[in-house]
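YM 10:42: Small, acid-soluble spore protein H sequence, as discussed on the call
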Amino acid sequence: MNANRVKQILSSSADIEVTYNGASVWIDSLNEDGRTATVHLRGPLEERSTVEIGELLEK
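YM 10:58: structure's back
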């Protein structure tokens, strides 16, 4: 995924499914470096991780 698509997903009101290493995640923000994003798993756990946006896949 690229930074422009991450920005589109963040500004969209639609529920767009994104995965990281096979796990469904929510994108919280695109980081200032433009190469990483803060995400958390969909579900009850709110643990956030910083990941390379190139490793995010849109379903």
